[in-house]
Amino acid sequence: MSSATAESILNFSAGPAILPRQVLEQARADILDLDGTGIGIMEHSHRGAAFTKVIDETRDNCRSLGNIPDDFEILFLQGGATSMFALIPMNLMDREQQADYIHTGAWTKKAIEDARIIGNVHLAWDGTTCDFKRLPGNDELNPSDDPRYTYYCSNNTIYGTMWPSPPSSNGRLICDMSSEMFSRPIDWSRHDLVYAGAQKNLGPAGVTLVIIRRELLEQARRDLPAMFRFDLHAEKGSCLNTPPTFGIHVMGLVIKWVMEQGGLDAMQAHNLGKAGLIYEAIDETDFYTGHAEADCRSTMNITFTCPNPELDAAFLSEAVAHGMMSLKGHRSIGGLRASTYNAFPMEGCRRLADLMRTFAADHG
C-alpha cells in the first residue's frame, strides 16, 4: 500500500485505534534515535537518563493536561484494563469488605467477575434488563450502606454509551476511562482512582495509565506479591520492573499532541462536533437505528444498525470501497460502530455521514 493510499484510509477501529499522524512520524524517528542520543527509544535503559527524561515529562504533561491535583499519584503500569479488574479489588478490599459496581456492559461484567473472587460485590444497578442501551440516573442507583468503593465505566465501546457526568457514590469512586481518557475534562473532586488502557485513546497497547488519590494509595494492601502492589509501583516511579518504555514514550507524544490542540476543553468541543455529524445522519431518517438512548450517547463509539443484517453487511462493503475500515459492530450486538477517538479527523466523520445519507437514499 502506497503512503498516499494509507493516508486516505479512515480507521474506525475501536482499539487498538487511530493515533495522530505526527505522533507516528515522531515515534518512527525515535525508534532509531531518541533526542540525538544515537540510540532508539526501545533500546534505552529504563534507568538511564534518556528514558528518565521521557517518563518524567510524560508524567508532568499528563498532570498538566488533565489538571490532575497534586494529591493524586500517576502510574504507568502493564496488563491493560483487564489487569485492573483484579488489581483494584486486590489492593483496595478484602474478603470481608464489599464494593458497589454499576453494571453497564461487557467491561463491567468482567470487572465484576474478577472482584467477586477477591471480595463481595453489590450491584448498584444492572443494565442487562435494558440491553445496555442507557445509563442510570442517580435516583435509579441502589448503593449499599458502606461500600469500600463504587466502580463504573465512563464510556462503553460496545454499546456506545457514555456517562454525561459521574454517578453518585457512597464510597470512593473508581472509573475505567479506557476508551475516552482525555477526550474531555475530568472532575477530580468526584474521583479517587481513574485508569485507562492506552490502546483506545492514549497510545499503543501495552501500557495502562493509573491515577490514584494518594490517601487511597496509602490504604492499599501490603500483603500482596510486589508486582501487584500499587504502593510499590508508586514508590519506584513506575519502574518497579522494566516498564513498557516505548508505550510510555508514545503516550507522552499523544499527550503533547492533545495539548497542542488546545487541551481538554477544546478536545471535548471537537469530539462533540465530530460525533454530531454522524448522529445527525442517524437521526434524520428512519433507515438507521442507534443503539444508545440519546441522553447517554458516546462521542467516542457511535453504534447503529441498518434495517436488517443484510443491509449492515452491504453498508460495510460500501464503506470499505470508500476507504472506511473497521466499521463492523461488536459481535455481541452486531450492526455498525464508528469509533471516533481524539485522533480521528473531522473530515472522516463528514465522509461517513455523507456515505450514510447516500446509502439510505439508495436502499431505503
Helix content: 25-40%
Strand order of the largest sheet: 2-10-9-8-5-3-4
How would you spell out the order of helices and strands?
HEHHEHEHEEEEEEEHHHHEEHEEH
- Going by helix content, strand content and strand pairing, the class is alpha/beta
Global mean pLDDT: 96
Count of alpha and pi helical runs: 11
Query: How many domains would you count in the coordinates?
Result: 2
What's the CATH topology name of the largest domain? Aspartate Aminotransferase, domain 2
* Low-confidence runs: none
Q: Alpha-carbon distance between the termini?
A: 35 Å
Q: What CATH architecture of the largest domain do you see? A: 3-Layer(aba) Sandwich
What is the CATH superfamily label of the largest domain?
Type I PLP-dependent aspartate aminotransferase-like (Major domain)
How much of the sequence lies in strands comes to 15-25%
β-strand number:
14
Helix/strand layout:
Elements: H1 3-8, E1 10-11, H2 21-32, H3 49-66, E2 72-77, H4 80-92, E3 98-103, H5 106-118, E4 120-126, E5 149-153, E6 155-156, E7 161-162, E8 172-176, E9 193-197, E10 208-213, H6 214-218, H7 230-235, H8 245-260, H9 263-283, E11 289-290, E12 301-305, H10 309-321, E13 324-325, E14 336-339, H11 346-363
Helix pairs in contact: 2-8, 3-8, 4-5, 9-11, 10-11
